[in-house]
Amino acid sequence: MKDKIYVFDTTLRDGEQVPGCQLNTIEKIEIAKALEDLGVDIIEAGFPISSPGDFKSIVEVSKAVSEPVICALTRAVKEDIDCAVEALKYAKRKRIHTGTGSSDQHIFHKLKTTREAILERAVWATTYAKNFVEDVEFYCEDAGRADLEFLARMVETVITAGATVVNIPDTTGYCLPEVYGNKIKYLMEHVPNIDKAILSVHCHNDLGLATANTMAGLINGARQMEVTINGIGERAGNTSLEESAMIIRNHDVGLKTDINIKKIYPVSRLITRLMRMPVQPNKAIVGRNAFAHSSGIHQDGMLKNRENYEIIDPRDVGIPESLIVLTARSGRAALKHRLEKLGVELSKEDLDVAYEKFLELADQRKEIFDEDLLQIMNLQGTGRILEIDYLKVECGKDKPARAKIILNKNGKHIEAEEEGNGPVDATIKAITKVTGVDVRLEEYLVQAITGGSDDLGKVHIQISKDGNFYYGFGSDTDTIHATAKAYLDAINKL
Questions:
Q1: Burial, 131: exposed, middle or buried (Cβ in 10 Å; 0-12, 13-18, 19+)?
Q2: Of the candidates 86, 5, 34, 429, which has an alpha carbon nearest to the alpha carbon of residue 256?
Q3: What is the pLDDT of residues 362-382, one digit of tens each?
Q4: Least C-beta-crowded within 10 Å: which of 74, 305, 353, 402?
């Protein structure tokens, strides 16, 4: 029988510590409900004493969800714990997460105290929190660099004081997987009362080892993993929920979670949208290239049997399908496949001719789209279905932005004007009005391509409609024009 791994999600606490990713209470409630649907066991809703906003969010999240345990973070300080108790008063199932430093680096140089004094504070904090809640988690901060014998002593001490979970964080992302796994194994074998509590792993990604360290800890006896959606978090981020959950599912390591993996991608997109933090394209599981294939050899193998180059079915994690991306590296099999999806069937000789034309165009562009193929086949007279003929945007400090756009739709001119909350919003609303296509904007990213005052900017946009996702790209010296191009590019694909 497989051992259950408790999934402790800290997106709303550690994940929100990313600069520029702060959430309001309404957004936190929306994410908490999504995490509940995803199947997480514990939601760390915030650090209540840090701000009135965090306190309020924990209160409201506690009211909004019923299945997961709601956890509040504190330091080993009376005021912190009192504040957490008050914030958690509406939680159906509640946990206080308190703790202090465990490494000599933290004890001597951050807290400027002694090991014995730290143990006394650990006992006091655990005992005090236990007066208010049954479920107390104690974190041994910087355990990744802590002396092993002292760490074992601290774990034993807080379990004796009443801790139900003991967190062994690699706070600085320092450990190698073998070292971290052996640290958990040592604690499992040398703490006499270890059967009275659950060991938890909380790993940071400073050296790109967070997920590997988490798995090493779980394999060696930890039974709770502390994770975030998309791996967001302090500095280089935390262990990624989606990576850890899919590793456990794909490998027979005697472990299981209650995560509904089909909800992974939709929750990932929700976090991206609300935190305004795009996922890197090559991010495992949820990056836009995670199930995209552009090499001719890979595409041919994929079309013969998906499992030749994919160990995960994208539909399992909520992504509609794999992508066969047409580039100069694509082969005849990929071109034939895409043309057949467009209703075009060719003989071998005609395919050879079309492939030569395809390569000529592909050498000039980064990616070839459906409308380009139709043009190659002389089935469509124009390139894009929708093209910008005119765009004018006005904005000022004391009045709403206003955009006027004229589009060329296969030779026919259509136009619209709209106001919005800023030039980007006005432009998108004008395009929505003129096209009649109402979609959800999932991701919006502006990148600089060149340098200087005449900088060429590239805009990447992702939209969704009816559960399907579409990407668009546009470049221009004017960011708003680049945005309009990218948005229309996505709509053309839709």
A1: exposed
A2: 5
A3: 888 777 877 678 778 775 444
A4: 305
User: pLDDT at residue 207 above 60?
Assistant: yes
Angstrom distances, CA of residue 148 to CA of 34, 169, 180, 206, 222: 38, 13, 11, 22, 16
337, two tokens: 């496949």
Question: Do 232 and 268 meet the contact criterion of CB atoms below 8 Å apart?
Answer: no
**Radius of gyration for the alpha carbons in the chain, expressed in angstroms and rounded:** 26
| Structure token pair of residue 218 | 């779980």
Print burial letters for 27-38: b (CB count within 10 Å at least 16), e (below 16).
bbbebbebbbeb
Strands 42-46 and 69-73: parallel
Q: Residue 467 has which token pair?
A: 């559960």
- Copy the structure tokens of residue 420: 């919005």
* Tens-place pLDDT, residues 234-273: 999 999 999 999 999 999 999 999 999 999 999 999 999 8
CB neighbours of residue 24 within 10 Å: 11
Question: What's the confidence (pLDDT) of residue 383?
Answer: 47
- Sequence-ordered list of residues with C-beta below 8 angstroms from that of 367, at least 6 positions apart, any chain: 325, 326, 327
Provide the token pair at 277: 């933090």
Region 454-465: what's the mean pLDDT? Answer: 78
DSSP code string of 80-149: HHHHHHHHTTT-SSEEEEEEEE-SHIIIIIIS---HHHHHHHHHHHHHHHHTT-SEEEEEEETGGGS-HH
CA–CA dist 2, 261 (Å, integer)? 18
Determine which helix (DSSP H) or strand (DSSP E) holds 355, and give its type and residue range. helix 348-362
Do the bridges between strand 323-324 and strand 386-396 make them parallel or antiparallel, or are there none, so unpaired?
unpaired
